[in-house]
Specification:
Keywords: Membrane, Transmembrane, Transmembrane helix. The protein is mainly α. It has 13 helices and no strands. The radius of gyration is 19 Å and the shape is globular.
Length: 215
């Protein structure tokens, strides 16, 4: 299944590599805005305490407001996987279709994953995998409440968590290459990984639909 997903991702990305590189650059630059606003150090912490707090608060709010952009990336990779015609505007689609829901569901996922990680790293990884289909599900079923979408993700990926982990693990070599190239390699690696995982969602969804038809 993993090799099949990778082959399908490469085929889907043919003629779209540079488009996804551009989308990835836009995603990275916009998500970097909060860190650019918040300085790493303060000259005089005592005299700038109020300013520091204001800047930190502004940075937090901006980071939250930009969450739909990352959701848009998930949706874009799903459209690429389905060989749909894509435009850069699709990256901003969640801002207009489900702004608050995309923020809420991302916060809930992060919170749940954090709580499980406090127990041990492995349970945190397992839960992160369990929630990994949530944003795709919201793309397909936007009427679902955030918590129900998370629940549907847990149900759908049940029995496939091991494969999901191995799929991510199979990209270790690529991620190391990205580090060696000082991050430049990630311009191509991240779209490849993202589209592959979206294809994995499609494969699991297709198998479950087949089971329902047989029933």
């Amino acid at each position: 299944m993993i090799s099949q997903c990778k082959r399908a991702a490469k085929q889907a990305l043919q003629g779209r590599w540079w488009f996804m590189v551009g989308a990835g650059l836009i995603l990275t630059m916009l998500n970097s805005i909060p860190s650019l606003i918040s300085p790493a150090t303060y000259v005089d912490e005592e005299s700038l305490t109020a300013l520091q707090q204001f800047i930190d608060f502004t940075t937090l709010i901006l980071s939250i407001l930009l969450i739909p952009l990352s959701v848009g990336w998930f949706w874009l990779t799903l459209e690429i996987t389905r060989n749909k015609n894509v435009e850069m505007a699709m990256l901003f689609e969640p801002f207009f279709k489900m702004f608050w829901k995309s923020i809420w569901v991302s916060i809930v996922i992060g919170f749940f994953t954090f709580l499980w990680t406090l127990l041990l790293i492995i349970p945190g990884i397992i839960k992160a995998i369990s929630y990994s289909f949530t944003l795709y599900i919201l793309k397909d079923r936007p009427e679902l409440p955030a918590i129900q979408a998370i629940t549907e993700s847990r149900k759908m990926i049940n029995g496939y968590k091991g494969k999901a982990f191995l799929l991510s693990l199979s990209f270790i070599g690529w991620f190391l290459l990205g580090i060696i190239t000082l991050g430049l390699g990630f311009l191509f690696i991240y779209p490849y990984y993202s589209v592959t995982y979206a294809q994995f969602y499609e494969e699991v969804k297709g198998k479950q639909n087949d089971i329902k038809v047989d029933e």
